[in-house]
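Memo subject: From amino acid sequence to discrete backbone structure tokens
Action wanted: Derive the backbone structure tokens from the amino acid sequence.
How to read it: Take the token row as a discrete description of the fold.
Attached in line: The record itself begins immediately under this heading.
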Amino acid sequence: MRFLAGLLADIGRLAMLKTIAKQYLPVLEAAEDGLRELHELEQEILGFDHIEVGLELMRSWELPEPLVLSAALHHADLEQLQAKADDSYASLLQAVATSAAIGEYFCGYGKGQALQRAKRFTQEFYGFSEEDLNEFIEQTSARIEEAGQLFSMNTSSIPDPSELLARANEQLAQLAMRAHVESQQAKARERSIEEEKKRLESENRELQQQAVHDPLTEVYNRRFFDETLSREIARARREATPVALLFIDIDHFKQINDTYGHHCGDLVLQRVAKLIDGILRSSDVLARYGGEEFTILINQPTEKGIGKLAERIRQRVEQEEIIVEGQRIPVTVSIGAAIALPQRHETDLASRLVAAADEAMYDSKRGGRNQVHVRSLIQEPERRLMQRVTQHRFSRWLVDRGLFDIPTVSKALAYCRPEPVRIGQLAQQHGYLTDAEVEQILQTQESTGERFGAAAVRLGLLREDELVHLLAQQREDAAKLARTLVQMGLLDQRRAEALLREYITERSPRRVAGPIATPAQAR
């Protein structure tokens, strides 16, 4: 069986020489340098190899499966043969693959690679040392000469073992050099690709920067502002939080251009943009809305807070000395602010909010310029609820007790934004609502468009003080704020824990037994 398997292993090569000699001879010529495996070149040039041809022939002859499989794996690597180690004919596969490597070493082109395979196979399958393999090759060479004499064949073209070894080593050296060159070329290509990637990324960042920034003032442009406002309104609607913006217009800007020139006007725009940007938090969004108008989208706004911020900006611009070519240019701004609480099904809030801020800014213009006006689109019941929520928050409790000032707490809050969580989920965590009650409120929301909390209070499932407590927790994670103050070195751990316990004890609502009265029943 082994002898027959060895004879049939390369039957595909003979078939290809007999049937497609014209196409096959260039493949054999390309393989003469021994640097590529013959079956690899066959696949590359012809699209198939002698292994596939041999297998098709053997299957058409209906030869036994062990013979077919040994032909399929006679060029296999060590790992493929090891995977077949448990097969009943594993020894046949190993013998054919080893003999194919030895045969290639003596008669083939790839002597270097054949010698490497022969070393691995004989060591793994037969326990040969390198000396054992050399002795085996000497014996094989002698038997080739004996067979040649027996069959009257000229074997002088087959080199002796020492010459074979020299050729094999030469090929291995060439292969190593080729691998080194290819490795260096690959590294060079990788470097080139990486450099090109970095260049494209840099260009992309620059294009993105240009796409969203005003080229003169380097603040965001109108397009970016509009997109950000839409996203912020969507977020505020989900979290039931207010959204606010400021409209800022440079007073008498046309007169500045006419008196001092457009170059001076550009310098004023740049200076005002820089002044405003220096006052804002990193979470606020400043954009040039058009001409001499700027707009600011305020993060986590309050009605009182946006008024104070607008006044700080107004004063800062008024106090700034803007000197161009030795002349001081008086610059003031008129500011309008607007704040709103998005309703669940409201679709035009962005345009309403912009219009309200714009009108407030014109109120400042009509009032004599260099002024601040604030407009609120929040309904009075919602405004009162928001004020109660603000008063209830842990940060406000710390400020009211004189432990920290507002700037310090605001800085800490910037590092501990709460995870988004729905009021219904919080109410269940506190034991205020059951699953069935949450479902009832959600169904009511769908039909009335109310907020979850408003519906829960109207249905008598939550008290207002419980809703305030839940909304305060939704806006601000008290435990996370306490940890942040410790990390900032403003509180020690024990003090933070004590303050947190005191806050919870003082501000957490107490629920008494029995049903909650609805507002109508309470009246």
Notes: Residues 266 and 335 are 20 Å apart (CA to CA).
